[in-house]
Amino acid sequence: MALAKGKLPYDDQQLHNTVYEHYLSHQTTLRDGLNSLREKGELLDITLIIEGHIFRAHKAVLSACSDYFRAMFTDNMLEATQNEICLNGLSANGFDPLLEYAYSGYLTLNLANVQDVLAAASHIQMIKCVYTCAEYLQSQIDLDNCLDIATIAETYSLETLKVKAYRFISGRLMKFSTSSGFYNLRPVQLETLLAYDFPVDCAEADVFSIILSWFFHVDNKLDVHTDYARRIMKYINFEDISDRRFYSILESFFQDTNDQWQIIRNIIQESFLQTRECLFSSPMMDPLLNSRGMEQAILSIGGFGGSGLTNEIDYTFTKRRKWMRLTTIPHLEQCNYGTAVYDNELYIVGGCFNQCLEEHVHPFGFKYNPRFDKWTSIAPMEMERCRFSLNELGGLLYAVGGSIDADRIGTSICECYNPARDTWYRIQDLPARISQHAGASMENSLHSKLFISGGIERDWSEICLATVYCYDTGLERWTTCAPLPTPRADHVMLSRGNELYACGGWTSVDDRELVDTIDVYNAEQDTWKPLTKVPTPRFHAGITLVNDRIYFIGGFQTDTYMDEERNLIECYDIENQQWTVENEYPEHVSEHTCITLYIPKGRDDKELYDFVQ
């Protein structure tokens, strides 16, 4: 029939679909046809001889899949006129799967042939097959072959595979160091392993001991050891190793060595002392935490965001100002839970959630390990509670007070969680039934104490409190301290040395007047005094202490939900006594909590800005 001028029998989408379907059908027909010709031995125009094995094929097919063969058959080379070619530098075991792939599109790999296939694919420049081999090796990494895979990656310049292999070794360094493969590490590979600075599964003192063990077991000339001692020691984080632990390890390895080995000992000791000289003070990190491959981050946990209540947890590295999505609390959307950090794991315990327009308080808890990006459940508290305080002290978590039901009835019951045993047990009750208070721990060589400040007393009436209580873990009892200068609720208390800082919150139950000062408590003198005025007073803000700087993130200035200050970040430098305004949080946020945690540096997380557009 005649077509009208300018018109098509199909619309554009239908035409596209038809062409695409025909394209796929043609691909299959062409591939199957060529493979059929090969199997029948028809129109074959090249014979390849590899290790005495004969492979017959079509030059056009080989040239289409391999730059190596394309150049051989089209660039006026001698082989272009030959019908039989003997190929050296290849294995028949490696080439056979590649020839099958050229005709079928399927590459058969296993641990027995993958190295031969990778070598052959690299030699004849079948780049897609090289990457397929690398992906296969990534999926097969284990403790027995991780070093071999790292060596293969280095041989063929497969950077992604190399990083994967060294990251695997780092994450299992303690186990790997006990295997025979550990002592097969070449000096340059040991240096590469440390230089990558990936998270490890042990303390830095253990890393130091593992490295010394390698030095004493690897059979090299002393001058090689001396050279690498200078190079490798710069990758040890000596600031994370105490003096006592360092010298104990050093003595255990060098006490019976000859004078030549003392040269290496002196190099190591010199590196350690140089690190000590660079430190203005010696703020030893938690010995359970190894900062290798990790970076300190501020976390914003849950609360109310632009779309309402959320379980999302966002973070920004303290040296950068870009907020990213980290993880999600594995529970129904909830709020008013307790948060604490122990052994660089984040604990989220208790809280309340809405279901069928009713508020439900629960006792359940979870912990998050940032190194493995994994949540696990912990034993539930003995009591359901929300709007309480949760603080770590001496390796234990203390849950104090809070509301125990939807009517916000307060409690004085306190309980303690032992992470090693995954159990809760009661401790002495608080002298009052309170909620919406603040808690902070203070620990030194003389004592370990938990402080509780302010809150709402929920007995016969609601009263905003200025009371401060102290729990001495040695005496196992509560005492009363000097009261807050101003009653506070929904505030935060931060611990720094021998001082506590009361920040944020409101006073007066009736009209919620904002408290506009940071008040500091001296534990030795049992006294409070104002430290500074907050430029933008807020309640339900996320407040945390990072390197002597107090951050106020989000929060309400008024009861208006669309409060314009809910993405404001202000920072107070305690040493310089100065306020600064930071870049705004990517969205409005309130009723969240903020803490610091060490996060692996190599994460590939999306910027929070991408989530809130």
UniProtKB/TrEMBL annotation:
InterPro entries named among the record's database cross-references: BACK, BTB-kelch_protein, BTB/POZ_dom, Kelch-typ_b-propeller, Kelch_1, SKP1/BTB/POZ_sf
Stretch forming the signal peptide: none
Keyword tags: Kelch repeat, Repeat
Domain BTB, first and last residues per copy: 44-111
A single GO molecular function term of this UniProt record: actin binding
Gene3D superfamilies: 1.25.40.420, Kelch-type beta propeller, Potassium Channel Kv1.1, Chain A
SMART domains documented for this protein: BACK, BTB, Kelch
PANTHER family per the UniProt record, alphabetical: KELCH-LIKE PROTEIN 32, LD33804P
Function according to Swiss-Prot or TrEMBL: Probable substrate-specific adapter of an E3 ubiquitin-protein ligase complex which mediates the ubiquitination and subsequent proteasomal degradation of target proteins. May have a role in synapse differentiation and growth.
Name under which the protein is recorded: Kelch-like protein diablo
Organism whose genome encodes this protein: Ceutorhynchus assimilis
